[in-house]
């Protein structure tokens, strides 16, 4: 087992990993930028190293600075959290080269699965259903290819994520212009302008399977997480089990995820994401080769600790649970991502000072956060403030618990999405479980003032 | 203590830059503090010292690793003089340079010492 783990991240996930380390008796090293000197992960970790100025490119994304911090503190492993360097094969390799264990998959697995189009090819070869689309990256003859897929189609960035380089095209006439736009957007965002085309699935749900694989050949799949409630392609609410997944579909998805993980020689935890159409067919979209933001949902449903599992796997131990145990659905769980954003101003980020913090509590309530009263949220990073996770015996009870917990949750001094979460949970479509990935767009559309008067004024 | 005696103490406090004085003897005493505004604390004069902060994370080495220190306290420096390097985990050497002309007033680092970003390594007087 490791003696000291460096956490190459910030915010709530760094706090989450520090806690897991402490429970395992492992010393933890926090790294921080100059803007995060007052951050909670710095206070909670056993040691802390300042690695650079505020912009993440010069601190949390600076591989050499992070690795140097690991070397000077004598850490023997690095936990990357999510985001930043977590899905960077080069970083995983650089850790290995310096004799540090990267708590995540091997660089080869990250490479195989990190690029969406190569991951899709691997999925096809492992008999995992994929969304019909162009076989690989597109160059010039894409109109014909798109027609064989059938309109409407989506144009997607190969290195993409977070909605960048993503375009919906309804007619062949728009295609060329939209492809060019997606290419330049992808080039700007990911320094990789390659895009591909796939069929547009109408009214989809976003359902994903958490996997865990050790170095002893055991690959297991957990019950699904439903991440359908999104806005601008960012997840807002995740729950497990999905109200739309039947046991037979669950089994098929789990088996598909395990086949893919085996085909990639995957170790550590990861997530296989699928689109689920209204008829119950599912299609592979991508693999996240890291811990997910929403991992606590699975932890709450199964009562297992995924960060501890990650550390055990990376240290060469066997998974502490088997497939049968991981399949047990012991509760219904919902996670709310609370962001420092103004829902009335199109979710514009609004950092600032937390004047007073009141966290919800009680049985079946967990809050993962780096906030404390008096903490100032820096403007340089992600707007995620906290994750509220609840669990209860069934879905209606979990929704009631969520509403209760949200009503207790007060973050004075900042505009947050707490109110939006209450609105979503009170909506009849959320309660009935029949919604798709456009739920928030429609919710906000209804909320917006009518534009009649504006049109008349012109 | 009567008010006349206290007035003497107060005028003495005003003659100093003290902001708070407590006195206790044989169970009796007083505590006075100057209210903000009545005796404003003068702004600190600009420091004569400039800190040279570590430009990176790693192990500090003098000019060339393994070499003895190439500057002593009291030495005069020119802006841009190389004071040492921070050797990163991947072996990159990040130069530590004197930001200005002046006298090397204090060396706060030793060869081989681990340093973090922004840590003061030297103070220069000038």
List the helices and strands and how they pair.
The complex is a heterodimer of chains A (458) and B (126).
Chain A: E1 4-7, H1 11-24, E2 27-33, H2 40-44, E3 47-52, H3 63-73, E4 77-79, H4 89-97, E5 101-102, H5 107-114, H6 116-125, H7 142-149, E6 153-157, E7 167-169, H8 172-190, E8 195-199, E9 205-213, E10 219-231, E11 234-240, H9 247-263, E12 268-276, E13 282-288, H10 295-302, H11 306-314, H12 323-326, E14 332-339, E15 341-342, E16 348-349, E17 356-358, E18 365-369, E19 384-392, H13 395-408, E20 410-412, H14 418-426, H15 428-432, H16 439-447, H17 452-457
Parallel strand pairs in A: 1-2, 1-4, 2-3, 4-5
Antiparallel strand pairs in A: 6-7, 6-8, 9-10, 9-12, 10-11, 11-14, 12-13, 14-19, 15-16, 17-20, 18-19
Helix pairs in contact in A: 4-5, 13-14
Chain B: H1 3-14, E1 20-25, E2 28-33, E3 49-53, E4 58-62, E5 76-77, E6 82-87, E7 93-97, E8 102-107, E9 114-115, E10 120-125
Antiparallel strand pairs in B: 1-2, 3-10, 4-6, 4-9, 5-8, 6-7, 8-10
Description:
The complex is a heterodimer of chains A (458) and B (126). Chain A is α+β, with helices and mostly antiparallel strands and 458 residues long. Chain A has helices spanning 11-24, 40-44, 63-73, 89-97, 107-114, 116-125, 142-149, 172-190, 247-263, 295-302, 306-314, 323-326, 395-408, 418-426, 428-432, 439-447, 452-457, and strands spanning 4-7, 27-33, 47-52, 77-79, 101-102, 153-157, 167-169, 195-199, 205-213, 219-231, 234-240, 268-276, 282-288, 332-339, 341-342, 348-349, 356-358, 365-369, 384-392, 410-412. Chain A has 3 domains: 4-102, Rossmann fold; 132-199, Dna Ligase, domain 1 (2-Layer Sandwich), CATH 3.30.1490.20; 205-447, 2-Layer Sandwich (D-amino Acid Aminotransferase, Chain A, domain 1). In chain A, strand 15 and strand 16 (348-349) form a beta hairpin. In chain A, helix 13 (395-408) packs antiparallel against helix 14. Chain B is mostly beta strands. Chain B folds into 2 domains: 3-33, no CATH class; 49-125, OB fold (Dihydrolipoamide Acetyltransferase, E2P), CATH 2.40.50.100. Helix content of chain B is 10%, strand content 39%. Chain B contains 1 helix and 10 strands; from the N terminus they run αββββββββββ. In chain B, the strands form 3 sheets. A 4-stranded antiparallel sheet of chain B has the order 3-10-8-5, with no helix packed on it. In chain B, strands 7-6-4-9 form a 4-stranded antiparallel sheet, with no helix packed on it. The radius of gyration of chain B is 24 Å and the shape is elongated. At the A-B interface, strand 3 and helix 3 of A face strand 9 of B.
């Amino acid at each position: 087992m490791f003696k000291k783990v460096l956490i190459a991240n910030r915010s709530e996930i760094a706090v989450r990993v520090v806690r897991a380390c402490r429970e395992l008796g492992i010393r933890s090293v926090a790294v921080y930028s100059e803007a995060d000197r007052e951050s909670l992960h710095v206070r909670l970790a056993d040691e802390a190293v300042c690695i650079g100025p505020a912009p993440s490119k010069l601190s949390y994304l600076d591989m050499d600075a992070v690795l140097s911090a690991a070397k000077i503190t004598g850490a023997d492993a690095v936990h990357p959290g999510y985001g930043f360097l977590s899905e960077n094969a080069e970083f995983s390799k650089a850790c290995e080269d310096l004799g540090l264990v990267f708590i995540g998959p091997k660089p080869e697995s990250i490479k195989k699965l990190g690029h969406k189009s190569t991951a899709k090819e691997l999925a096809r070869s492992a008999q995992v259903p994929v969304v019909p689309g162009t076989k690989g990256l597109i160059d010039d003859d894409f109109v014909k290819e798109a027609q064989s897929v059938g309109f409407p189609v989506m144009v997607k960035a190969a290195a993409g994520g977070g909605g960048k380089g993503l375009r919906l095209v309804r007619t062949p006439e728009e295609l060329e212009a939209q492809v060019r736009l997606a290419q330049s957007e992808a080039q700007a965002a990911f320094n990789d302008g390659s895009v591909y085309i796939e069929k547009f699935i109408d009214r989809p749900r976003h359902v994903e399977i958490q996997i865990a694989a050790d170095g002893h050949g055991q690959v297991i799949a957990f019950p699904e997480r439903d991440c359908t409630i999104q806005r601008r392609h960012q997840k807002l609410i995740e729950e497990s089990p999905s109200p739309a997944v039947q046991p037979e579909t669950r089994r098929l998805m789990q088996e598909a995820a395990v086949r893919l993980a085996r085909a990639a020689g995957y170790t550590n935890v990861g997530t296989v994401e699928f689109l689920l159409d209204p008829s119950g067919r599912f299609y592979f979209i991508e693999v996240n080769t890291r811990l997910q933001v929403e991992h606590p949902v699975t932890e709450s449903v199964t009562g297992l600790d995924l960060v501890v599992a990650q550390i055990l796997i990376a240290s060469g131990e066997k998974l502490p649970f088997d497939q049968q145990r991981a399949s047990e659905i012991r509760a219904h769980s919902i996670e709310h991502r609370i962001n420092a954003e103004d829902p009335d101003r199109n979710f514009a980020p609004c950092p600032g000072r937390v004047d007073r913090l009141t966290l919800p509590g009680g049985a079946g309530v967990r809050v993962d956060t780096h906030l404390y009263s008096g903490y100032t949220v820096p403007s340089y990073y992600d707007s995620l403030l906290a994750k509220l996770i609840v669990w209860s015996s069934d879905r209606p009870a979990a929704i009631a618990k969520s509403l209760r917990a949200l009503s207790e949750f007060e973050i004075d001094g900042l505009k947050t999405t707490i109110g939006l979460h209450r609105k979503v949970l009170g909506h009849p479509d959320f309660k009935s479980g029949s919604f798709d990935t456009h739920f928030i767009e429609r919710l906000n559309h209804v909320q917006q003032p009518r534009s009649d008067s504006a049109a008349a004024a012109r | 203590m009567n008010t006349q005696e206290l007035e003497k103490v107060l005028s003495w406090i005003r003659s100093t830059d003290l902001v708070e004085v407590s006195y206790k003897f044989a169970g009796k005493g007083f505590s006075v503090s100057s209210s903000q505004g009545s005796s404003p604390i003068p702004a600190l004069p600009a420091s004569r010292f400039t800190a040279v902060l570590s430009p990176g994370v790693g192990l500090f080495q003098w000019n060339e690793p393994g070499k003895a220190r190439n500057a002593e306290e009291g030495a005069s420096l020119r802006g841009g003089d190389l004071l040492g390097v921070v050797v990163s985990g991947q072996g990159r050497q990040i130069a530590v340079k004197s930001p200005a002309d002046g006298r090397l007033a204090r060396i706060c680092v030793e060869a081989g010492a681990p340093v973090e970003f922004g840590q003061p390594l030297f103070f220069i007087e000038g």
